[in-house]
Amino acid sequence: MQPRVSVVIPTRNRPLLVGRAIQSALTQTFKDIEVLVVIDGPDEASSIELAQINDPRLRVIELLNSRGGSGARNAGVTEAKGEWIAFLDDDDEWLPEKLELQLQVSKNSNYLFPVITCSLIARTPRGDYVWPRRLPSPTESISEYLLTRNSLFRGEGSIQTSTFFAKRNFLLNNPFNENLIKHQDTEWVLRASTLEDVKFEFLEQPLAIHYIEDRQITVSSKNNWRYSLNWIQNNKYLVTPRAYAGFILTHISPEASEQGDWKAFAFLLNEAIKFGQPKPIDFLIYIAMWLIPRGTRRSLRDFLKLKLNLFTQPVSNI
User: What angle is formed at CA 112 by the lines to CA 111 and CA 117, rounded to 5 degrees?
Assistant: First the structure.
């Protein structure tokens, strides 16, 4: 029978973590689902682990060659049978009511292609806190919401892949870009937000857990500021001048500073001013990224979050 929702989980070489993600999908309060795990290339350990899960709603797709996270997601969408697609990263997990609540929002949407997202619990060894800390205003562009900061803390604006919920036919016509090694998810959101009859709709309730420190070092998480700069330059048409400057000064600068590439200091600053519209907070964060060591910045952020009560209680009902 055709399920209402298809859950797509791309994975590679993380058999224990993907089991946790699958369990959180199979125990959703909304039961009319299938769970497609796309193994991105040869991975015997994951194949063996998944073969031990006894649930008819689970389907495993093994790609002959690795296509990356975007390619694995696209392959899952192609094979899916559901009307709706929900993505889940293999090292994240969902709270039990996620799909049920997102489906309710979709029924009340006035748009042909709503993309429903939600808040999440960002889990680190230092504590849990909720992302995003605010929702976009009605007149705020998605690019500024995602790429700029109005405070010193991360997670102010966030749309993370494990919260995506969208129609399959829309995703078939608007797949993830498989040529990118970084920023694939952000690029998809920016591109989708410019299309007619598309609306990003937000559930403020945190319905997923996003593990920060548990993630393995991948190509997309390595410091490569020149790649990120080239990406934003090529996608300038998708962002506002404020978002362009904000991404350079608050997202690219940490990568350059951690590499100790001081030649980039003046270059990136000039790029942001010449082609963007930075605000004072952007300059403040930029200077802090270069002058304050990462460990010190992290300790200071954690101290201020604790004082401002930005941490949440640990989630234990999964």
Answer: 65
